[in-house]
Amino acid sequence: MEAQALDDLERIPADFMQNPHELLKKFRERGPVHQVVWTHGAKVWLITGYDEVRSLVNDPRVSKDGRRANELFARHSGAPAEVAPADTVSQRFDDELASHMLNSDPPRHGRLRTLVSKAFTPQRVERLRPRVEEVVERLLDGFGDRTEVDLIADFAIGLPITIICDLCGIPEADRADFRQLSLKLVGAGQDPDEVVRASKKMTAYAAALIEAKRAAPADDMIS
């Protein structure tokens, strides 16, 4: 399939993640493979067929290296990827954030996964149960006097971020900021300049937290 110019491609709307089902249904009816412009402005292949997705995720020629995504953002912004400085690329993560475990290829992926897997043995996960139940009860109790509740914002986001903060040993005083930065980085349709600022703030915060854990380690994943 030949690549098309950006102007000829369908653009995925910024609010796609709020209700993706209708749009994905339309693409599935057309076929399993589509070239589109994603919400952040990058030209991508959207794969909607089950068999095709399985083939791709098991194909060693397909990379998950997050740093390559930054190259794509640079290229599609009009700047040469090999020379584009970070402050000229709209909506990009710092490489320190883009190259995390889920965005890494072997052998780096295997090395990082081995480290992280030690925190998620069945025994350690089971020990999380009381804390998860405690957080669930606290969040649900907060709905008692309300006539309307946004389950996504008030429950489905709050629960995992709280447990992630617990696992990583993020201090209580920092958690509200950590949540806001995280939502800027992973939410669809965010302002590109805000994503850049959030990326730099998160990288700086992570570096400071790592140094603090080196000085005073505790029982958490970052330590």
Q: How would you describe this structure to a colleague?
A:
The protein has 223 residues and is mainly α. Helices cover 52% and strands 4% of the residues. The chain is built from 11 helices and 2 strands; from the N terminus they run αββαααααααααα. The protein has a two-stranded antiparallel sheet with strand order 1-2. β1 (33-37) and β2 form a beta hairpin. α7 (129-141) packs antiparallel against α9 (158-168) and α10 (175-186) crosses α11 (192-215). It is globular. The relative contact order is 0.09.
Pick out its properties.
223 residues; mainly alpha; two-stranded antiparallel sheet
The main β sheet shows up as:
2 strands, antiparallel
Residues in β-strands, percent? under 5%
Number of strands: 2
DSSP helix fraction: 40-55%
Number of helical segments? Answer: 11
Shape: globular
Residue runs with pLDDT of under 50 for 5 or more positions: 81-91
Summarize, please.
By secondary structure, this protein is mostly helical. It has helices at 21-30, 50-57, 66-76, 95-98, 108-117, 122-127, 129-141, 151-156, 158-168, 175-186, 192-215, and strands spanning 33-37, 43-47.
Question: Secondary-structure map with pairings?
Answer:
Layout: H1 21-30, E1 33-37, E2 43-47, H2 50-57, H3 66-76, H4 95-98, H5 108-117, H6 122-127, H7 129-141, H8 151-156, H9 158-168, H10 175-186, H11 192-215
